[in-house]
């Protein structure tokens, strides 16, 4: 499982005559939680001032984002992997993938959403605005998602690479197993010192994931993922406890 964060920015539009159907999404154990989150999102978005405070957005952004939220149940949908934009997803460049890579993504990529919990890559979703630090009327996001998502992740058989940000990892902690690891992006400088990357880590995650999925069938063990990554020029090495460092290749 390759766990990704969402993005605050979303692509507009969707498949003609499509609309949100929770019954078509993966992880049906989250259906009721998703429905209650949708209720909360619509309620907080009815009033402009309330919505701006809850979502921490400007008046300029509110004109678009609050309308998206008000229409979240009826607007057209896109596969989650195509809906999200921004640095990480631009680096993924999913529209340029081979058909084989796209099928692998459907099997292995999971996105952590503040609104929907865990999303499969091909789950059809509308455009919306809700972030890990949004403040809804009656729900705390960590309390809402952390336990049920963590239970689902604990039942997953096979390695888990957590490429989410720390804030989104808190919405569903990975199990404390040897084959489940949080991935921290680092760069090795000419001086031999390894430094964690900040903004550039999103682009690196996108490029790494695209390369991995295009390389062939996914390995079934963590050691296999580490070996495959090294063959592709990406070093995964032990970091802090429970973590792997992803070393960005030097140009």
TrEMBL record:
Domain of life: Bacteria
Annotated Pfam families: H2O2_YaaD
GO-annotated biological processes: response to hydroperoxide
InterPro entries: YaaA (IPR005583)
Region forming the signal peptide: none
Gene Ontology, cellular component aspect: cytosol
PANTHER family on file: PEROXIDE STRESS RESISTANCE PROTEIN YAAA, PEROXIDE STRESS RESPONSE PROTEIN YAAA
Name of protein: Peroxide stress protein YaaA
Organism of derivation: Microcella pacifica
Gene this protein is translated from: yaaA
